[in-house]
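The authors assume throughout that readers already know how a fold can be written as discrete tokens. For illustration, here is how one protein appears when written out as sequence plus structure tokens.
>
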Amino acid sequence: MDAPYCEVALPVPLRSVFTYAVPIPLREQTVPGSRVVVPFGRRAMVGVALSRTNEKPEGPQIREIVQVLDGNPALPPALVELGRWVADYYVAPVGEVFRAMLPPLVEVRTKREVFQTPSGTQAHAALSLRSDLSDSEKEEWELLGQLAREAKPIGVHSLRKNPRAEAVLRRLQRRGWIEIREVAGGRKGRTQKIVAWKGLEGTVEGKSIATIERVRKVLAEERGPLPLPMLLRIARVSRAVVSRLVRVGTLETWDEPLDPGEDPFDADFVPPANVLNAEQERAVGEVRGWLDAREFSVALLHGVTGSGKTEVYLRSVQETLARGRTALILVPEIALTLWVGRLCRAWFGAKFEGVAVMHSALGDAERAREWWRVRRGEARVVVGTRSAVFAPLQNLGLVIVDEEQESSYKQEETPRYNGRDTAIVRAKKERAVVLLGSATPSLESYHNARTGKYKLLTLESRVENRPLARVEIVDLREEFKSTHRTGPISTRLHAALAECLQNGTQAVVLINRRGYSWFVMCRSCGAAVQCPNCSISMTFHKKRNQLACHYCGATRGVPKICPKCDSEHIYFFGEGSEQVEEQLRKEFPEARIARLDRDTARTKRAYQQILGAFADGRLDILMGTQMVAKGHDFQKVTLVGVVAADALLSLPDFRAAERTFQLLTQVEGRAGRGELPGAVLVQTYYPEHYAIQDAVKQDFTAYFEREVHFRKMMAYPPFTALANLIVRDRKIE
């Protein structure tokens, strides 16, 4: 490690690395995977050291690494190698890849500091000898003198208290007497106030004994010391009451580092004690053998909905931990991390410390905390969405990719990568076992299993041999002939929902469209309002009263006249989840209804509140987009209604039929998972389509044989590979 130069990956949109000189005091610390602070232009940036070299690059003077942030490398060698592979295979900027692999920089802040140069020191000495200084020269002499007295750099922010400082700094910088650099430093950690019961040493005038007794009971008998906000909520008291009790000595407080800590959603959860059936036991036995062999292998776990794939996951993780190795569980939606994380914490947590949950809905501080727990080896099981594939687990033994067919495993912005495929490559590099699970696997994965590239494990029956839900197709063409009206809720679905409410059971309604209306169109000229960036129709969101592009996120106001022909005949087409929710509330005013989509569940807390309320029986109907379709295990759901089941079939995508089959099969599996039988109503204008017919029968094999025949004829995946090339320019020529 005595090589004088180091290649550093910086978070900039370039596919190259940058070479820096390594000062002698930092050479021992600067190893591959370390986070280093380097000058880049006029800024300080945090990058990742990749490799040391003795070759001095050509070009101007080589700048030096300023600081090494970590005593031990942030990224282990296996992840450094994986990051290089991702950058190469997906043609992604290498620095952007490593930025995605690292935790948020919550412990580092940057600031601009003023350094006096040697010529500045000489200039200050020369000015000190003169007695005829002008006003501007006096200002320069004073600032240079301040830098000399401090004998260390001074923050630009502190100098700007002087209104003339900005102009003086610019003059001194032009003359080369000072340098202004952006440097990295530590960030003060956030704290929270903890309150504890001390004893009744005094009295609080004007406050009832009942209030004080409530506080005492919470802190002394039930919970113990609590963060102040939690005490206020549980004991139903104000901050003023707590302050008075602290003043008289009844309570004591202190500050502790803010720790997002355990989630109350998990607090008293006890997982069911399930006994494996023969198929599950056989699958776990296969995984056990692969783990003992300590060789890389990939298996597809194909099981019908409700067949107990999650139980196989948990037992496989248990076998992995028993062998002293670690496990990674990837799920496609943030909503599913809550449920799977809850199960894992109950199984393997030891007060939740053995399990880390990682996804984008966490705040920066909590994401960094979870990341470093994994890096230090405090958490041996990681549950997360696609970015968790980069979790810094060491001695990785098992990677589980649940609902492996989901498109959400693909990262759509830089750096682009496929989380499922990256997980397989990572497991290959670390000689781990990969378990791809799904009731509706992608054609590529199932083809790989059929041809022997992957191993195939099957679960053909539901747990306890429960029957699949009864599925009924509602032909909307016949509905229109009999009622002469259109709407998201058919007569048959309305009657089924009413019966469900009367029986005290729960229902799930799926509409795989966000917003209120699909698009806005002018009836005079036929033009739809399109996104200026993507050239696709924008969706109307009634609650926000704006149009939004669901690809790039651009928004605009709702036009009162057509932007092209100035006509007033603006019309809103199609029903989205917002409109379906409005219709349900109108038709069932007494029902407790909630909507789960990206508009209503933007944070972890929102997910928890909606799913927790439904799981606890505090909601009657849960409706939403595909977030409600996958992975959830609600025992009281006896009815699933699918609105616009054929919406995906009209998309110009060769995977349209595949995604329709997958979504319908997945949502059908939410019904009848408990003791009560389930029913599914599928509303469609195209009931003859083979994807809908096979989904109704939940016959994946029949669907696969039909679809793979078309794919082979058209030379589509899995028989070929496709790449998407995007070319951007300011002008179209």
